[in-house]
Amino acid sequence: MVSGYLVSMPMFYSVIIPVYNRPDEVDELLQSLTSQSFKNFEVIIVEDGSSVPCETVTQKYAELLQISYYSKPNSGPGQTRNYGAERASGDYLIILDSDCILPEDYFKEVEQELTASPADAFGGPDRAHASFSDMQKAINYSMTSFFTTGGIRGGKKKMDKFYPRSFNMGVRTEVYRTLQGFSKMRFGEDIDFSIRIFQHNYVCRLFPGAWVYHKRRTDLKKFFKQVHNSGIARINLYKKYPDSLKLVHLLPGVFTLGVAVLLLAALLWPVALIPLAVYALLVGTDAAVQNRSLRIGLYAVAASYTQLTGYGTGFWRAWWQRCVRGKDEFSAFSKNFYK
Fold this sequence. Notes:
It is a single chain. The relative contact order is 0.13. This protein starts with 12 loop residues before the first strand and ends in a 15-residue tail after the last helix. Helix 5 (134-144) packs across helix 11 (294-324), helix 8 (220-240) packs parallel to helix 11 and helix 10 packs across helix 11 (294-324). The chain has helices spanning 23-34, 55-59, 77-86, 106-116, 134-144, 173-178, 189-199, 220-240, 251-266, 274-291, 294-324, and strands at residues 13-19, 41-48, 67-72, 92-96, 100-101, 121-123, 126-127, 168-172, 204-206, 212-214. The strands form 2 sheets. It has a 7-stranded mixed beta sheet with strand order 3-2-1-4-8-6-9. A 3-stranded mixed beta sheet has the order 5-10-7. The chain is globular and about 65 Å long. The chain has 2 domains: 13-124 and 164-216, Spore Coat Polysaccharide Biosynthesis Protein SpsA, Chain A (Alpha-Beta Complex), CATH 3.90.550; 223-324, no CATH class. By secondary structure, the protein is α/β, with parallel strands linked by helices. Strand 2 (41-48), helix 2 and strand 3 (67-72) form a beta-alpha-beta unit.
């Protein structure tokens, strides 16, 4: 149901951060939280069975933030967020990934948006920080560019409606608990949650000004694992919610098939490589101009091909296993994906 509440007083927020072996990243995130211009929030760190915990890092901020630290056996990010939400006291939950950094006016932007027009759930975009490596900046480009799946992730100037993602998501605590939080899906659990938000007719919006710096993966191998599982998750979501699969979600799979066909054709007709070269030139030029770096432009070509074909191969793999062979839900890299 749609809520009819008003926002007349400053909100109190509970920041939920699931962590798996990322003490250095948590340090950067907590440091950015100490610099917020809006201070009315608590921070809940939940260690998800890490072998390299961040408790010592968290203790550094005990006098600077209203912060709580919990440690539990590994269960994946969705259930770890639920664990933190059960212990939260805020009006809204702010769900962040541990590899994010917040600009100083993040909460100020959220508060202004909610004051202007209340929402039950919301999310914001992400950017690359100046301190990120060139590869991280290239990967960020590939995840946000209109020339890749950034164009189908929803939001302003996108091809699909906006679905909040768990790296930067806000939701009214009452709504979160009504929906019973995140499901037990290992991958795609944030989209699953967003789908249920829309199914229950809650108000969900993009807050363009509430953006975060998001490190994502640090190399192409880890990045491939991430996007491959995202492709698998799309089919898992389709099996759970048949109406959730849109034509635009097929684009990475079609792209992957096209790359395979052109590479095979190039064995006999080298000119078949021209479309691939044109796409690489387009992406490389755009990324180089945006980042003012030829190196990042070159890296972005590799990252974009990795992203599209990683997602596409995961999509077709899951389609074969689940839609053709009738197998149960699965993920490809569940044992080491979060390392």
